[in-house]
UniProtKB/TrEMBL annotation:
Keywords: Hydrolase. The keyword Hydrolase applies. The keyword Hydrolase applies. InterPro entries: Sialidase_sf, WD40/YVTN_repeat-like_dom_sf. It comes from Paraphaeosphaeria sporulosa. SUPFAM superfamilies: Sialidases. GO terms for molecular function: hydrolase activity. It comes from the Eukaryota. This is Oligoxyloglucan reducing end-specific cellobiohydrolase.
Length: 330
């Protein structure tokens, strides 16, 4: 399985999720892992018959060794889009109540263990808005949120690492891309009224939405002022660019490209307690910044082509997850 979902609860408790209905958890710092694969009876029907659905859990948020919420991304018309939760350490998973006719789910973010937002692609990317769902009961039920200022303008989000929406210091952030226009970072204090700012990463003008691999994939803030976004093109052979990483010092009002050219990166995470340290990871490598995103240096190439997601915790430990069941500590 490939693991795009990653949630680090502590130095001993880590959850990962991904393809083939897969969810795994360690409670001993990675020495052993429990297979908590979600078994279900979901099906879809087309002209040739009825078939079982294989879910791709591209995001997971865990609050302890017992409680977690997993999000499946995919084609809503094929019943591939859903949210599931457990309160007994994965022994039993329940499907959350969500609005009918879902679009493509991208990512979850949480203010606390009760209140969270779920980002989904727009129903109409040309003149519609990014979709938001909200929970106040820890993910058991979700309802649509009416927003202003979250217009898609031909863009969507990337379900690459479960980090295209974030909540830090009383503010929500969303990053979008995938069109010939610059990727944008939206910010909101209430999840309803949004303002946006452009980054310098633009898409390919020769391809339409949904086929452009260009865009910012991940957003992370250390506090109310210092933030990072990373992305690029997930297509192979695309050269590194300084525009694949950007930083802000004013809470996302303006963004500045890095001085270091990086290849595509799908996730970024600050190291808590380390004022200017952050790690960015992707399918072609992992990088560290010591100055809040201005410059970056490469880390070990031992697992160069494996990681999709990265998350750092207090104590200077970062976890990463990715292709072919790869999970590691950085």
């Amino acid at each position: 399985a490939g693991f795009r979902g990653l949630s680090v609860v502590s130095d001993r408790i880590v959850w990962v999720s991904g393809t083939n209905n897969s969810v795994y958890r360690t409670t001993d710092g990675g020495t052993s892992w429990s297979d908590l694969t979600i078994t279900h009876k979901e099906t879809f029907t087309n002209a040739t018959g009825t078939y079982p659905v294989i879910l791709d859990f591209r995001d997971i948020e865990a609050f302890s060794a017992q409680v977690a919420v997993a999000m499946a991304a995919g084609d809503g018309s094929l019943n591939q889009t859903s949210v599931w939760y457990t309160e007994d350490g994965g022994k039993r998973w329940r499907k959350s109540r969500t609005p009918k006719n879902p679009i493509f789910y991208d990512s979850l973010a949480w203010e606390n263990k009760h209140h969270g937002l779920l980002l989904q692609d727009p129903a109409n990317a040309t003149d519609g808005s990014m979709g938001l769902l909200e929970t106040h009961d820890g993910g058991k039920s979700w309802r649509e949120v009416t927003t202003t200022g979250l217009e898609a303008q031909g863009q969507a989000a990337f379900a690459a690492s479960g980090t295209c929406i974030a909540f830090v210091a009383g503010r929500w952030y969303i990053v979008t891309g995938g069109s010939p226009n610059p990727s944008r970072v939206f910010r909101s204090s209430n999840g309803r009224s949004w303002k946006d700012a452009n980054t310098s990463l633009v898409g390919d003008p020769n391809v339409e939405l949904g086929y452009s691999g260009y865009g910012m994939n991940s957003v992370a803030f250390r506090d109310s002022r210092n933030g990072l976004v990373v992305g690029g093109s997930f297509s192979t052979g695309v050269p590194a660019s300084k525009n694949n990483v950007a930083y802000t010092r004013n809470g996302g009002v303006t963004w500045t490209s890095s001085n270091s050219a990086l290849e595509y990166r799908s996730a970024v995470s600050w190291l808590p307690g380390k004022s200017k340290l952050a790690v960015a990871g992707g399918q072609t490598g992992t990088n560290l910044t010591r100055d809040g995103g201005v410059t970056w240096e490469g880390l070990t190439d031992e697992h160069r082509n494996e990681f999709f997601a990265v998350q750092c915790i207090k104590g200077g430990v970062c976890w990463a997850s990715g292709r072919k069941g790869a999970v590691g500590r950085i």
